[in-house]
Amino acid sequence: MIHSWSHSRALDFQKCKFMAWLKYDQKIPEPPRPLPPGKTEHANDRGTRIHTSCEEFIIGKSKTLCAEACRHFEAQITLLRVLFAEKKVSVEGEWAVNRDWDTVPWNGRWVEAPGAKPQKTLKKLPDYGSVTDVFKVGTKVYTWEPSWLRLKLDAIVFHSDTHATVIDFKSGKKFGNEIKHGEQLQLYQLVSFLRFPKLERVDAELWYIDQNEVTKVSFTRAQGLKFKPNFNRVGNEITSCTDFTPRPNFFSCQFCGSGPWEGGTGHCKVGVKR
């Protein structure tokens, strides 16, 4: 089963449940891909490099910002650096919640399991566990509860106790991605309201680094919390699924490395290529 979900995992799950199962439950690594013609790096590697540069510049670890971010967003990111020094900005936050939407550690936590049969008795619980672990420490029995939803926020700016702006840097294109990017903003603002109970307004922004564009949506607390039932449904569907039947189609399969073609891992026997 897939025990934890995120926005990107939800997108993979929608494309093909079998692909998501291979990646997030079986942990099957995808094979190396050839570079696109005329490119020196893959899009995801480029995105990681740009995000890392922005983060290190904002927190003061680096004095320079990558050329891509400087082209259109140097002033805005420099302001984030100033606000970070004033402790008004948090970057690369690793946020996680359980099924009750309570804040939990990124990887999960140990919870008491009265009545469960322990596998062994320990003097101290390890830092991390797996869903099958049941340990006894002293007179109590514990099992490992993985985090249910994970979000990695590029930046959040606190204007006051009641007003914040969440920001996600986008190195890809905007056109054609409006729906999934909009859903990402909805999820980020929802978890912001739940994580910080005093917030009454959240501005959610996407900064399209290459295109000098910003998408901004503002939410009141009442508006933001209305998205919770939908994301609850999405998360429960992913984390309770036991039928990972492949969904072969030209669009999803062309980006998958698990198919039966040359260069694929062969884990999927029904993938299709153009």
CATH topology of the largest domain: GMP Synthetase, Chain A, domain 3
**CATH class of the largest domain, anyone?**
Alpha Beta
Strand content: 15-25%
Low-pLDDT sequence parts: none
Give the overall shape.
globular
Approximately how much helix is present in the residues? 25-40%
Describe the main β-sheet briefly: 5 strands, mixed
Q: What order do the strands of the largest sheet run in, or round the barrel if closed?
A: 1-6-7-8-9
SSE pattern, N- to C-terminal = HHHHEEEEEEEHEEHHH
Give the mean pLDDT: 94
Global Rg: 21 Å
The total of beta strands comes to 9
End-to-end span in angstroms? Answer: 31 Å
Per CATH, the architecture of the largest domain is 2-Layer Sandwich
What is the SS-derived class?
alpha+beta
Number of domains: 3
List the total number of helices: 8
